[in-house]
Design a protein that fits this description.
The chain has helices spanning 3-17, 24-34, 41-62, 64-74, 81-102, 104-110, 115-132, 144-156, 164-174, 179-189, 191-207, 215-244, 249-268. It is mostly helical. The chain is globular, with a radius of gyration of 19 Å.
C-alpha cells in the first residue's frame, strides 16, 4: 500500500471518527498499526495534526452560519450573547492548551501504535456514552463553570482512545446542557485549538529553517487532508442528529468491542503491562 493511499485511508478514518464518538486519535493509531505504518513520534503526530486541521475546517463549513453570526456579534463590541459564547470557548481551551504545552513530548510518545492504551481509553469512552443516553433532556445553556469542566474533558481526550466529541458532549449532557447546544459547543470549541497548533508547528519550522515535511510527505498530507475534510462534513451533520435522538449507546457497544480487540491484539503480539513487564 503506497503512502498516499495510506494517507487517504487515515483521512477517511479521521473524518468519520472525529465527530462520531469513537475516538479519532484511537482509530488513527489502530489504522497505523493495521497498515504497518512506520511513522512514529513527531512524524506521526504531524499527520494527526493535519487530519485534525481538516476536520476543524469542515466544522467551520458546517457551522458557517453560526460562525459568521459570532464574528458579526463580536464586531459590535458589546457584551452580547456572541461575546460571552467566545469567552466560554476561550475558557474551555485553557486545560487542553496547558496540557499540550507542558506535556508535548510525553503526548507525542503516546502516538506510537499504543494498542493497550487505546483499548483502555476506548472502554472509558464506552462508559461515558452509556451514561449520556440515560441523562435527562434539558434546555440549559453552557455556563462559565460548565465551559471549564468541558475543557477539562477535552484535555483528557488528548489521550488516544478517549473520544473528544464523546467526552465533551457526554460531559455537557451530564451537566444538564441541551443536547444540540452541547454538540455545537463541542465541535466549535476545538477549532481554535487546531488552528493554533497548526500555526505553532509552522512557526517552529520557520524558526528552525526546516521544512515541515519532504515533497513526498507533503503530497501524502494533502491527500489525507482532502479525505478527512470531505468525510468530516458528512459525519458532523450526522452526529448532531444522533445526539438529539439519544442514540449514542450504539457507539458504546462498538467502543467496547474495539477495545477488547485492541487489548487482545496487544497481548497476542507479546505486549505486557507497563511497569510490570520483565526488563
Amino acid at each position: 500500500m503506497t503512502e498516499i493511499v495510506k494517507s487517504i485511508v487515515l483521512g477517511v478514518v479521521q473524518g468519520l471518527t472525529e465527530f462520531l464518538p469513537v475516538s479519532s486519535s484511537g482509530h488513527l493509531e489502530i489504522a497505523k498499526y493495521l497498515m504497518d505504518s512506520q511513522a512514529v513520534g513527531e512524524q506521526s503526530m504531524l499527520m494527526t495534526v493535519v487530519l485534525h486541521f481538516a476536520t476543524a475546517l469542515s466544522t467551520v463549513v458546517v457551522f458557517q452560519k453560526e460562525v459568521l453570526e459570532i464574528i458579526r456579534g463580536l464586531f459590535q463590541f458589546k457584551a452580547n450573547e456572541h461575546f460571552w459564547f467566545c469567552v466560554k470557548i476561550v475558557i474551555s481551551m485553557i486545560p487542553a492548551v496547558l496540557v499540550g504545552v507542558l506535556l508535548e513530548s510525553q503526548i507525542e510518545a503516546l502516538f506510537d501504535r499504543q494498542l493497550l492504551l487505546v483499548g483502555l481509553m476506548l472502554i472509558l469512552t464506552a462508559v461515558l456514552l452509556l451514561l449520556v443516553d440515560r441523562a435527562k433532556c434539558t434546555e440549559k445553556p453552557v455556563s462559565i463553570l460548565d465551559s471549564i469542566i468541558i475543557g477539562i474533558s477535552q484535555a483528557i481526550a488528548i489521550l488516544p482512545g478517549v473520544s473528544r466529541s464523546g467526552a465533551t458532549i457526554s460531559t455537557s449532557v451530564l451537566l444538564g446542557i441541551d443536547r444540540e447546544k452541547a454538540a455545537k459547543f463541542s465541535f466549535l470549541m476545538v477549532v481554535p485549538l487546531i488552528f493554533g497548533k497548526i500555526g505553532k508547528d509552522v512557526f517552529d519550522a520557520v524558526q528552525a529553517n526546516e521544512p515541515m515535511a519532504t515533497n513526498g510527505e507533503t503530497i501524502s498530507l494533502i491527500a489525507g487532508f482532502a479525505a478527512a475534510f470531505i468525510t468530516g462534513m458528512f459525519a458532523c451533520t450526522w452526529m448532531i442528529k444522533l445526539v438529539k435522538g439519544s442514540k449514542l449507546s450504539y457507539f458504546s457497544i462498538y467502543c467496547f468491542v474495539v477495545a477488547a480487540l485492541c487489548i487482545f491484539e496487544h497481548f497476542r503480539i507479546g505486549g505486557g503491562i507497563p511497569g510490570l513487564s520483565s526488563p
